[in-house]
Amino acid sequence: MKGIGRGAAKQDGLFCDTDQYGNSWKRMFFERNMEDLIENFVPESTEINEITETLELSKDFIKRLRIKQLLPQIRDVSTTTPAEEEISDQGSDTGTDDSLDHFDFGLIINKLPKLSELSITYGVRNCGMNFEWSLFEFTQKDCSLLAKAVKSCPHLQILRLQRCQIEDEKARLIISHLLDHPNLRVLDLSHNRVGDKTGRAVGKLLSVNNVLEEVTLCDNNIRAEGASAIAFSLKKNSTLKVLNLKLNRIGDEGGRNICQALMRTKTLRSIDLSSNALGEHVAANLARYSAIISRWSTSLFRATSSALRVVVFFKRASKTIRFSRNLI
Predict the structure, then answer these.
(1) Separation between Cα atoms, residue 135 and residue 85, nearest integer Å
(2) How far apart are CA 313 and CA 277, in angstroms?
(3) Contacts of 192 (CB under 8 A, 6+ apart)
(4) Residues paired with 270 in a beta bridge
(5) Distance between CA 117 and CA 157 in Å, rounded?
(6) What is the DSSP code (8-state) at residue 261?
(7) Angle, helix 168-176 to helix 196-208, in steps of 10 degrees
(8) Can you tell me the distance from the alpha carbon of 177 to that of 185, in angstroms, rounded to the nearest whole number?
(9) Are 218 and 188 in contact (CB under 8 A)?
(10) Count of other CB atoms within 10 angstroms of residue 86
(11) Using alpha carbons only, how large is the chain's radius of gyration in Å?
């Protein structure tokens, strides 16, 4: 501990900063301990008793859980035939292997009365030569259980499901359970496989939900149809402040519809549409609307806090052209 400040220490090779835990050592310990138990839990192999017993001691201190890996069930290889092993190997290469299920958050989430943030990545870290696509599969059962768990946690404010390979049908199921959620303010489905169907579902969520403030859908497959559905909902929504659609494929049609929506929304402060194959005309319109409505921090690439900055990238004659404007 010598040479380390009162608010920080090193534990198990990791730097611990209590500033990230409300300056509470107890909260930091109990949150990290619970995260470790969940990340190393193997369904149908690990006893749930240790987690439930820990919950009794830590439930009043846990406000945030950031789960960086989830282990699947262990396949029983003792009864596997050579033919099945060959199919499994092929599945590992093609991504068509049988799916395996993961930890059920419904076992704990309604027992954490102060939980406000839940961040989950369905996958295995450092799997090395044991790689199989099933280790990174967000199964239908996983989706159903998680959707019910989130709905049963009315005090949850932030939900992040990043890099889970979530597809449209599963994303729509989760969103359907959030339509009447009373406190959810941040929804993050970035780095997944969602497309236009999810865009329509998000549009519906924004139309009926009156508390959501931030939606992040960057690095997905949303095109013009999904972007247009979100744009239509922006005209009705009165709470959304941040929208991130970076690294999608909305194109000019989706960009034009969002341009029209920006003129009617009253609360949006930040929007990111970078890397969406926007043409020169759409990019210029976005910049013009940003100049007209200077209360926004609208950026196609980045937003600064000291000034309203618009950075527009578009392609012309096979070259990338940059337009930048500061709005004080």
Answers:
(1) 16
(2) 9
(3) 161, 162, 163, 164, 165, 166, 167, 171, 219, 220
(4) 242, 297
(5) 6
(6) H
(7) 10
(8) 14
(9) no
(10) 10
(11) 22
Say which residue the tokens 């790689």 belong to. 131
Q: Give, in order, the Cα–Cα distances in Å from 155 to each of 6, 160, 298.
A: 31, 15, 30
Task: Give the pLDDT of the chain (328 residues) as one tens digit per residue.
Answer: 333 344 455 555 467 788 989 999 999 999 999 999 999 999 989 999 999 999 999 999 999 999 999 999 876 655 455 554 554 444 444 344 445 689 999 999 999 999 999 999 999 998 888 888 778 889 999 999 999 999 999 999 999 999 999 999 999 999 999 999 999 999 999 999 999 999 999 999 999 999 999 999 999 999 999 999 999 999 999 999 999 999 999 999 999 999 889 888 888 888 888 889 888 788 777 777 766 554 444 444 443 333 333 334 444 333 333 343 443 3
Is residue 269 within 8 Å of 237, Cβ to Cβ? Answer: no
**What is the spatial distance between Cα 187 and Cα 216, in angstroms, rounded to a whole number?**
6
The rounded Cα 233 to chain-centroid distance in angstroms is 20
- Are 214 and 185 in contact, with CB atoms under 8 Å apart? yes
Which strands sit side by side in the sheet containing 242-244, from one edge to the other?
64-67, 117-120, 158-161, 186-188, 214-216, 242-244, 270-272, 297-298
By the 8 A CB rule, do 134 and 99 touch?
A: yes
Q: Mapping DSSP to helix (H, G, I), strand (E, B) and coil, where does residue 314 land?
A: strand
